[in-house]
Amino acid sequence: SSSLGPLSTLSEIGLMLFLLLVGVHVDLRQAVRASRATLFTSLGSITLPLVAGLALGYGLLPKYGHGNATAFVLFVATAISVTAFPVLARILGERKLLATPVGSVSLLSAAMVDLVGWILLAVITAMVSGATRPLPLTIAFAVGLMVPKSLGQLLIDKLEKLTLMLPMPIFFALTGIRTDLFPSSHGVAWS
Question: How much is the pTM?
Fold first, then answer.
């Protein structure tokens, strides 16, 4: 795990640069025109999964919940309701949809959903450990939204290929390496 430290740092920097560039790509004028659609898409995208996640968390609580029951249920609900924002951004970018109305609504809705998710995770972390976490990825995206278009195009020209070729693949590889598909089993088969 310690040998992955430098790669982990590079991947996190790459992810923040990627989300900054995604923010640069988004056309805020289109998003403002579609603000009603963005709001309703965001609300629908978080409400249904959050409610389903609360029900699932409550159902899993007797068997898997240890410690703070409220934090456990909220964590399950949050995990179910957040989007895979970097993955969505990558798909929209590859399909050349970032600057389209559909791409703008999708990304801004996903950003709003993830912002709520980060806030919930900060609340859960505070409930469990008394600490809070910053929102570096959301901040990188927000900064990208505010970059003037003339500077934005320069950033895209200089950073996009480099970001997509080196740190982003490392990010996805490390995410796969760190994924534990059976964290609660401790070697015991699920029944």
Answer: 0.56
